[in-house]
């Protein structure tokens, strides 16, 4: 039996690498690939636009985007607080995301990730319930 690779779908944990550059051929805004991971589809509004663009992709696939710096929050929505790159201006830039891995998270990870999206935003009070490690 041939195993088919797991595709990105809701409630999968996705690990990505990110590079950013001033032109598509040169990722000169990040000095090295930045890695981050998140669980797809746990935002209060469902899929963030970035998550929707990643759906059905496989490990090794890449997503290339051209953005203005001020477009990043709308693309990321609830993922903005865990995103490893913040552009220094609103100028256009290019971003390359590569899917490094797709796994099924444990229930505890899903609950923890959902809880982290319910913070109070800017000026957070810092008194939110913390799940034990």
Task: Describe the protein.
The protein is an alpha+beta fold and 133 residues long. Helices cover 16% and strands 26% of the residues. The protein contains three helices and four strands, in the order E-E-H-E-H-E-H. Strands 2-1-4-3 form a four-stranded antiparallel beta sheet, with no helix packed on it. The longest helix is centred in the last third of the chain and has 10 residues. It is globular and about 45 Å long. The relative contact order is 0.25.
- Provide the succession of SSEs: EEHEHEH
Helix content: 10-25%
Number of helices: 3
Strand fraction equals: 25-35%
By DSSP, the count of extended strands is 4
| Helix-strand category | alpha+beta
- Biggest beta-sheet profile: 4 strands, antiparallel
Radius of gyration: 16 Å
The low-pLDDT segments are 122-133
Mean pLDDT across all residues, rounded? 86
User: How far apart lie the N and C ends?
Assistant: 38 Å
Report strand order across the widest sheet.
2-1-4-3
* CA-based shape: globular
Question: Could you provide a short overview of the structure?
Answer:
The protein is of the alpha+beta class and 133 residues long.
């Amino acid at each position: 039996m041939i195993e088919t690779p797991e595709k990105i779908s809701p409630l999968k944990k996705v690990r990505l690498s990110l590079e950013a550059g001033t032109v598509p051929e040169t990722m000169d805004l990040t000095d090295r690939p930045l890695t981050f991971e998140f669980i797809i589809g746990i935002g209060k509004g469902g899929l963030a636009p970035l998550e929707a663009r990643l759906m059905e992709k496989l490990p090794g696939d890449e997503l290339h985007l051209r953005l203005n710096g001020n477009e990043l929050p709308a693309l990321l929505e609830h993922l903005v607080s865990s995103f490893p790159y913040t552009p220094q201006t609103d100028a256009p830039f290019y971003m390359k995301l590569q899917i490094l891995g797709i796994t099924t998270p444990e229930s505890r990870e899903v609950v923890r990730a959902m809880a982290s999206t319910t913070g109070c935003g800017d000026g957070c009070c810092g008194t939110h319930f913390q799940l034990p490690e």
